[in-house]
């Protein structure tokens, strides 16, 4: 199942047919009812480099650009529903998503449409899936690993680390403080996960 199909079903959307035949720049499928690229993408569209070469946006994919809600908000879609995710709910949705198939999109400022890369990545497992994040693109969620990371992040925040420090930029003074508190393991864990996308996302939503 492609992401636009899931959205169409969940939100009961009406597909509008265009007049251009050719390959869709979003999903690469052939269509006879595609829409003109210039009409689908506004002048401030920033994701040109993520498009495939093609002729049009197919009638299903164009749904994704017909409503600003997909760019401006975090959301989750599954067969029976579509919900905006509030900032403080993002972590809970990641750990407890709806029944598959579903898809989760998390934004920071609402500029980049990272789900463009995720058209073929609708989730079929609640424990192992891909989701879109505005800053990190397509990110893999592995529940077992995420639980471990989450417990380390919680511990880090408890002993007074900032989110910047959890990302691996630990000041020497903080290192000393952690060593005094017998938190050497915590330092090792932070180093181990530095630059891991899921780790960064989980810090962000904590
Ligand atoms: Zn398409």
Give a quick summary of the entry.
This protein is α+β, with helices and mostly antiparallel strands and 206 residues long. The chain has helices at 3-11, 37-40, 69-72, 90-95, 143-158, 163-166, 172-180, 184-193, 197-205; strands spanning 20-23, 30-34, 74-78, 81-85, 102-106, 128-133, 137-142.
Instruction: Report the total helices.
Output: 9
User: In order across it, which strands form the biggest sheet?
Assistant: 4-3-5-6-7
* pLDDT averaged over residues: 94
Low-confidence stretches: none
Helix content: 25-40%
Distance between the termini: 31 Å
What is the strand tally?
Answer: 7
User: Which molecules are bound besides the chains?
Assistant: zinc ion
Overall body shape = elongated
What does this protein structure show overall?
34% of the residues lie in helices and 17% in strands. It contains nine helices and seven strands. Strands 4-3-5-6-7 form a five-stranded mixed β-sheet, sandwiched between helices. Helix 5 packs across helix 8 (184-193) and helix 5 packs across helix 9. The radius of gyration is 20 Å and the shape is elongated. 33% of the residues are buried. The structure holds zinc ion. Zinc ion binds next to loops.
Task: List descriptors.
206 residues, alpha+beta, 2 domains, 5-stranded mixed sheet, two-stranded antiparallel sheet, 9 helices, 7 strands, 34% helix, 17% strand, elongated, binds zinc ion
Fold blueprint:
Elements: H1 3-11, E1 20-23, E2 30-34, H2 37-40, H3 69-72, E3 74-78, E4 81-85, H4 90-95, E5 102-106, E6 128-133, E7 137-142, H5 143-158, H6 163-166, H7 172-180, H8 184-193, H9 197-205
Parallel strand pairs: 5-6
Antiparallel strand pairs: 1-2, 3-4, 3-5, 6-7
Bound molecules: zinc ion.
């Amino acid at each position: 199942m492609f992401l636009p199909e899931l959205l169409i079903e969940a939100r009961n959307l009406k597909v509008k047919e265009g007049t251009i035949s050719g390959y869709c720049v979003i999903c690469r499928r052939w269509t006879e009812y595609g829409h003109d690229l210039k009409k689908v993408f506004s002048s401030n569209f920033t994701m040109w480099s993520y498009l495939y070469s093609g002729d049009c946006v197919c009638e299903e994919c164009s749904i994704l650009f017909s409503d600003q809600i997909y760019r401006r908000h975090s959301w989750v879609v599954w067969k029976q529903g579509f919900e905006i995710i509030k900032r403080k709910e993002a972590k809970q949705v990641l750990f407890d998503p709806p029944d598959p198939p579903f898809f989760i999109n998390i934004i920071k400022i609402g500029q980049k449409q990272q789900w463009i890369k995720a058209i073929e990545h609708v989730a079929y497992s609640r424990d192992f899936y891909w989701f879109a994040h505005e800053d990190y693109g397509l990110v893999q969620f592995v529940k077992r690993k995420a639980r471990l990371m989450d417990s380390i992040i919680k511990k880090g925040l408890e002993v007074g680390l900032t989110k910047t420090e959890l990302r691996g930029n630990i000041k020497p003074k903080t290192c000393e403080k952690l060593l005094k508190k017998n938190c050497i393991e915590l330092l090792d864990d932070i180093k181990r996960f530095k630059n891991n996308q899921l780790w960064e996302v989980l810090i962000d939503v904590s």
